[in-house]
Design a protein that fits this description.
Blueprint (H helix, E strand, L loop, with lengths): L1 H11 L1 H19 L6 H46 L1 H10 L2 H14 L2 E8 L4 E5 L11 E8 L5 E11 L1 H57 L3 H10 L8 H56 L6 H29 L7 E2 L1 H15 L5 E8 L7 E2 L2 H18 L5 E10 L2 E7 L7 H4 L17 H12 L3 E7 L3 E9 L5
Parallel strand pairs: 6-8
Antiparallel strand pairs: 1-2, 1-4, 3-4, 5-7, 8-9, 9-11, 10-11
Helix pairs in contact: 1-3, 1-6, 2-3, 2-6, 3-6, 4-5, 7-8, 8-9, 10-11, 11-13
Length: 493
């Protein structure tokens, strides 16, 4: 039976095997030849090759199943034909009517699609034979036992019938299966090629504008002299009437790239400016160390200098030394992208700055009062203490200078409100007009100081907000100004 199944499968699946070979060649060509690795090659080479290969594998499995069923049905039919005429064959043999037996066997060979038939007795003697007229297409020899009923009704085996199936009859049936699969393979390949050609034409038509845009963009990038000019070229180089989602995304991407180029150029310029400023500050700090050393020597020699002035001189030297060290540390941290912050008691910094201002403005009758409420003496904040000291010093200096009365009353109220440390610095100055108050904190905006440059308040606001705090200015004309600093408390986990 295996021979018959193989024969039928080979005849039926020949177009599928050819399709599998062709599909494998197409897929291999796409893989090994880089020129085929294009959109057109994918649709016209890889896609048909893959479909042919899959069709061949699935089709061969189906054909094998059909061949198995066909051969099984063929054998079943042949055995049924022989069984239906078994009694007739027995009677002819037993009666010695061999001429009629030969005619019956020849008719059975034709009706059951057999190539040769022979009847052999139980002792192996050949009783009758119809030889095959074919040299090829012979199936495996098969044997059916011939039985007759004895006088008591029992079946007795007296011989056997041997036959070979005629595979050419199976070939005729397999030819029909092969013809169907051939038509199916041709139809599938034709549809795939037509579909691939249509999609290739459609995509080429849609992508032609994209390719043209990219080519023009490549040429324009080479002639752009500045980043801003390049950004303008990217913004203007968009697809006209985009329909596909990818075309809309390309237009958006070009606009985003243009914006990123402008932003990158701006940040590059800022970094270059910061680098120049850093080098300048480093040079200034280096040059100022010599006169600072001289001030230090004078502050150590207190002969002829009052104790208050000596203390003030020493305080000024320490302040200058702290400022120069802080400048160097700040720009070093910017180069290494490190954030300098420290956990400390803000009340200590406040008292230090107040003592300094009292000593400096002792002749101006500056009355600076610190009032505390809540747990301010044990409250910690995570702020740079030196930057906070600089902010407090600038605010107090502005408050003292803004006072036109004989006594500068500066009230510093420190309190803790839930999770925040709040500092309010209130003066008795003339106040600030509303149109000026709304602009204070911007770079270069100043009020009430002939030599002011607007950097102090700008720096204070920028520092507070960048550190997570708040900077507010409240003022009323004729009453005074209040500056409020709000900083989150530092909580240990």
């Amino acid at each position: 039976m295996a021979n018959e199944i193989f024969w039928t499968f080979l005849v039926s699946s020949s177009p599928l095997l050819i399709a599998g070979v062709v599909g494998s060649i197409l897929c291999s060509s796409f893989y090994f030849y880089k020129r085929l690795r294009t959109l057109r090659g994918t649709l016209l080479v890889l896609l048909p090759g893959a479909i042919l290969t899959v069709l061949s594998i699935l089709g061969c499995a189906v054909v094998f199943w059909q061949a198995h069923n066909l051969v099984s049905n063929f054998n079943t039919g042949s055995i049924g034909q022989i069984a239906s005429r078994q009694d007739e064959l027995v009677n002819l043999v037993m009666g010695g009517r061999y001429v009629e037996l030969g005619e019956v066997l020849d008719g059975l060979r034709k009706d059951a699609h057999l190539s040769e038939l022979s009847i052999v007795s139980s002792d192996g003697q050949l009783l009758a034979q119809v030889p095959s007229k074919l040299q090829t297409g012979l199936g495996d020899e098969m044997t059916i036992s011939l039985k007759r009923q004895d006088l008591d009704g029992t079946a007795v085996s007296w011989g056997s019938l041997k036959y070979r199936p005629d595979l050419h009859s199976l070939s005729n049936w397999a030819e029909g299966i092969r013809r169907k699969w051939t038509i199916m393979a041709i139809a599938v390949v034709s549809v795939v090629i037509l579909f691939g050609s249509f999609v290739t034409w459609l995509l080429h038509r849609r992508m032609r504008g994209l390719f043209q845009t990219l080519e023009e963009l490549k040429n324009k990038v080479g002639i752009a002299s500045t980043p801003n000019e390049l950004a303008d070229l990217l913004k203007n180089q968009v697809l006209v009437n985009p329909q596909l989602t990818e075309e809309v995304d390309l237009n958006n991407s070009l606009s985003n790239i243009a914006a990123q180029i402008v932003d990158l150029h701006r940040r590059t310029l800022e970094l270059a400016i910061d680098a120049r400023i850093g080098r300048t500050i480093a040079q200034v700090v280096h040059d100022i160390r010599s006169p600072m050393s001289l001030i230090n020597v004078i502050s150590e020699n207190t002969e002829g200098i009052s104790e208050s002035n000596s203390k003030l001189l020493k305080m000024a030297f320490n302040r200058l030394n702290m400022i120069t060290a802080d400048l160097l540390m700040k720009f070093k941290s910017r180069e290494t992208h490190e954030v300098q912050s420290s956990v400390h008691l803000p009340l200590t910094t406040i008292e230090q700055i107040v003592s300094e201002k009292k000593a400096i403005h002792a002749t101006k009758n500056a009355d600076i009062i610190i009032s505390l409420s809540g747990e301010v003496q044990t409250a910690f904040i995570d702020f740079d203490s030196r930057e906070l000291g600089r902010v407090l010093s600038n605010i107090m200096e502005n408050a003292i200078e803004a006072t036109t009365s004989k006594v500068a009353n500066i009230n510093i109220d420190c309190s803790v409100d839930q999770n925040f440390f709040i500092i309010r610095i209130q003066d008795n100055g003339p106040g600030i007009p509303k149109e000026i108050l709304t602009r204070l904190g911007s770079k270069g905006v100043t009020f009430g100081k002939s030599n002011g440059n607007g950097l102090g308040v700008f720096h204070a606001k920028e520092f507070m907000e960048s550190s997570g705090g708040k900077f507010q200015i409240l003022s009323e004309l004729g009453i005074g100004t209040t500056v409020q600093l709000t900083m989150p408390l530092y909580r240990t986990i």
